[in-house]
Structure formats: structure tokens, C-alpha cells
From TrEMBL:
This is TonB-dependent receptor. Residues 36-441 form the TonB-dependent receptor-like beta-barrel domain. It comes from Paraglaciecola aquimarina. It holds the Pfam family TonB_dep_Rec_b-barrel. Its main location: membrane. The keyword Isomerase does not apply.
């Protein structure tokens, strides 16, 4: 039987992959000469090594109060947490030292022969209050209200200090802007202001129904921005005095300015020993080569133009993560549990509804990068239980609705998914328990789509997993 042969992939063919990641990397090392598996050099330092250090000081004060309000038993817990964080991010990377202009619109960034540390420091602090109140409305009904603030720190990948130089697009003099990518050690944590309220009705010693509502106002979500910044003291040979002189020389002889002619004339002016007649040699070379494409290749093969201190700094259009988004997440949950008298049999169920105010627009152009809340979906669980005479058993059905896994220019959606799990345990004696568990016992798969169910991104064969274990208490 073929893998996924029973899986509906729409109008698309089925392609699956299975490979050894380490062997693939080794092959790529040999094929392309890249050190994807980095090795320590003589100094004990690795290229592409990133370290994020966080020194966190925190203090927490809590006060509890119990009493009655209007004859109803009431408990109050109030607290405040202070956190101060000092962050130092260091990336060991090959540092670019210059840009080589090879031909009309061809640029190469040349790295130094050694690696260096790029380091940035940042500090921030938070005061995070919390308040929890529960009220026994009657002997069977309890109400709860909670308020608090929490933080979630940025990923270590976003906190790196590394900077990568990308493509140069076109000569700066002709309107092109080189690009770069960077992380951002100055990111601050997401700050969530949380409100929760619930009511619980206990209609038996082990049976209840509850309803809850939650609202989270989250600031400092991480998005992307593009800003023009100089990087590594890299300079632009297309906008300095030599290039300006080439522009003037081309204007004198009536040649239309473009990247090709700019490079050729700059190369001629940059090598006067090879072209003593300057502008006249431009036409001599053109006539000798016979056509522009051969001429372009010939000059590009013989001459490279490097920037000098007279050339201006490049301003790279740098893409980096920033704290620039706010969002609201809210929803409700209903849950119930009931055991049937003394039979040992019981049922437990819950449904959670989750909504957010920032959604992905599937109709937007693929070139538009979007911010959207990821991972939000409704969930439901139902459990059949048995607890009696040393036996404990659970058969659970778990369901999760479709959710957005990642945003950006192209979304990834995880399809609605469900699975069955079970656990059975028996107390052989007072200190010995034997357990058998099964996860995803019906072999459900997980599918990830693009903007449509007809654009599958991948399918994961999760398979069923079983465990058998024993626990003994000494």
C-alpha cells in the first residue's frame, strides 16, 4: 500500500519525501562548498554561531483575603510581579568587508577571512499585577473573576544580532536599492492584559457544568518592517566620484546612460593605464568587439571595480522584526463532567470557542506581507471514563478546527483534525501500577494547505503510538 494513497489531494498529484537530514547536509557541503555543518576553527569559535544571554531579576508580592460579601463566602488573591531583564545578543559571523562590482548589474559581497562577533545589548522591565476573586453564590454555584498581565518573550531567532546582505537589484545610481535581512535584539516581550470570568454549578460531588469567558488584549506583537540602513561600512562604487565622472563622459559622447554603459565607462576611467585615450578608447573597444554583449562580457571578465573611501555608504533596505502590532483574542468555554452513581462510569466534555480581531486576507496579492493571529481555532474534547476497583480507563476524542499556522506573503493553514486516544491502568498492588496507552489509534493524518484546500503544502503521517509501562512507589 502506498503512503497517503487514500488521502484526497484535490486535483494535485501526490508527492511525499523521506530522507536523512544529516546525509542531505553532507551532500550539500560537498556539492556547493558551504559549511552547513559548522566546524570549530583554530580559535575555538564557529561561524554562524548565535548566543542570546538574558539576566532576569524578578520579585513577587501576594496578599490573600478570605471573608464574606453579602453573606457569600469570598476569597481574594492579589499580587504584583516585577521583572527586569538585561539581554546581550552575540552572533559570530563572516563580516562583509567590501562590494565588488563585476559587470553592469552584477555585484558580489566579499567577506573577510576571519569571523567576528556582532553584539548588541538591550534592557527592559515590567510591573505585572494580578487579581483573582471567587465567590460562593450558593452551596452549589461558584463564580470566579480574574484580571492580570503576563508577558511572552520573542523567539531567540528574532533576537539574534546577525545581519545578512542580500541582492543589490540594480546600480544605485540607476534607482536600485540593495537589500539586507536582520534580526532585532531590541524586541520587547508581548504584553497581554487578561480578563477571565466563569460560573460553575456542582450538581453532585463529582459532577459539574461550567461556563467561562476570556478576553486578552495583546500588544507588541512582532511584525516586519523595512528601513534603509548602512551595514558593515559597505560603500557604493556606482555613486562615487569615479561613477560621476563616467556619467559626465558618457554625456559628452552622447551615449544613453544605463547600467551597462555606466559600468564600462567607469572601468575604462578606473584603469587609465589600459585605456590611455579615455573616451576615445570606449568607441575603439566597441568597434573592435563588434557588439555590445561581447563587449560587456569582455570588460566584465577583465575588470572589477572596488569601492574606496570617496564612495558613499550603501543604504540597504533592511527587513527586520519589530514590535508594531496589537490584537484582541477572546472567546468562551463550556465544560461538563458527570459520574453515573457508583458504577465508576463517567463522561467529561468541553468546547472552547476562540476568536481574534486580526485575520489573514486570502484575497490579497501574494506580494503583500500580512500580519495575522496564528494558532487560533475552536477545540472540543469528549472523554469516557471508568474509575473503580483499582482500574482507571480513559477513551478520549479530541478535535481541533482549521487554524492559521503561519502568515507572511503566503499563508499555511492546518486542516481541521481529530484523533482518538486511550489510557488504561490497573493498580496491581498498593505501590505498583501498570499502564497501557494509545495515541491516535485510528491513524489520522495532518494536512497543511495554502490559500485553498486545493493547494496542499504538506501531509504528515502521524501514525498510531502505543506505550506500555509500570510504576512502582518505593
Amino acid at each position: 500500500m502506498g503512503l497517503f494513497e487514500d488521502y484526497d489531494m484535490g486535483d494535485h498529484g501526490i508527492t511525499s519525501f523521506r530522507g536523512n537530514a544529516e546525509e542531505i547536509v553532507k551532500w550539500a557541503n560537498e556539492k556547493y562548498g558551504h559549511a552547513f555543518l559548522t566546524e570549530f576553527d583554530d580559535t575555538g569559535v564557529r561561524d554562524n554561531d548565535h548566543t542570546v544571554e538574558e539576566d532576569v531579576f524578578s520579585a513577587y508580592i501576594q496578599y490573600s483575603l478570605s471573608g464574606e460579601i453579602g453573606g457569600m463566602e469570598t476569597n481574594v488573591v492579589a499580587g504584583v510581579r516585577y521583572e527586569s531583564t538585561d539581554l546581550k545578543s552575540t552572533s559570530i559571523q563572516a563580516v562583509p568587508v567590501t562590494t565588488r562590482w563585476q559587470d553592469n548589474n552584477d555585484f558580489v559581497t566579499e567577506n573577510g577571512s576571519t569571523t567576528n562577533g556582532v553584539m548588541e545589548e538591550h534592557s527592559y522591565n515590567h510591573v505585572l499585577p494580578s487579581l483573582d476573586i471567587d465567590v460562593s453564590v450558593t452551596d452549589d454555584i461558584k463564580a470566579r473573576v480574574s484580571f492580570g498581565q503576563t508577558i511572552a518573550r520573542a523567539s531567540y531567532e528574532d533576537l539574534r544580532a546577525s545581519i545578512g546582505i542580500g541582492g543589490y537589484n540594480a546600480a544605485t545610481l540607476m534607482g536600485g536599492i540593495p537589500n539586507a535581512t536582520a534580526s532585532n535584539p531590541s524586541l520587547v516581550p508581548l504584553l497581554s492584559t487578561n480578563f477571565d470570568a466563569s460560573v460553575e454549578y456542582y450538581f453532585d460531588d463529582t459532577s459539574y457544568v461550567s461556563f467561562g469567558y476570556f478576553d486578552k488584549r495583546v500588544s507588541n506583537f512582532i511584525g516586519k518592517e523595512q528601513v534603509r540602513l548602512p551595514q558593515f561600512d559597505l560603500r557604493d562604487p556606482t555613486a562615487g566620484p569615479r561613477a560621476q565622472a563616467a556619467v559626465a563622459a558618457l554625456a559628452d559622447i552622447g551615449v544613453t546612460l544605463d547600467e551597462t554603459h555606466l559600468f564600462v565607462m567607469t572601468a575604462i576611467l578606473d584603469n587609465p593605464q589600459d585605456f590611455p585615450n579615455g573616451q576615445a578608447d570606449y568607441f575603439t573597444e566597441m568597434n573592435r568587439i563588434g557588439n555590445e554583449s561581447d563587449f560587456e562580457f569582455d570588460i566584465g571578465a577583465r575588470y572589477d571595480i572596488y569601492p574606496n573611501e570617496d564612495d558613499p555608504l550603501y543604504e540597504f533596505l533592511t527587513s527586520r522584526p519589530v514590535n508594531n502590532k496589537d490584537a484582541n483574542i477572546y472567546g468562551a468555554e463550556i465544560a461538563a463532567q458527570h459520574f453515573f452513581a457508583d458504577t465508576g462510569f463517567g463522561l467529561q466534555a468541553n468546547y472552547t470557542l476562540v476568536r481574534g480581531d486580526v485575520k489573514y486576507d486570502n484575497t490579497a496579492a501574494p506580494t503583500v506581507s500580512q500580519f495575522a493571529l496564528t494558532g487560533l481555532s475552536d477545540t472540543a474534547n469528549m472523554v469516557a471514563m471508568y474509575e473503580k476497583d483499582g482500574w482507571q480507563a480513559r477513551l478520549a476524542y479530541n478535535w481541533r478546527d482549521e487554524f492559521l499556522q503561519s502568515a507572511g506573503t503566503e499563508p499555511r493553514y492546518v486542516e481541521a483534525y481529530s484523533q482518538w486516544d486511550f489510557t488504561v491502568s490497573y493498580d496491581v498492588m498498593e505501590d505498583l501500577t501498570v499502564t497501557l496507552a494509545g495515541i491516535n489509534i485510528t491513524n489520522e493524518d495532518q494536512r497543511v494547505n495554502g490559500r485553498s484546500v486545493n493547494t496542499p503544502y504538506n501531509v504528515t503521517d502521524l501514525g498510531a503510538r502505543y506505550t506500555l509501562g509500570a510504576r512502582y512507589n518505593f
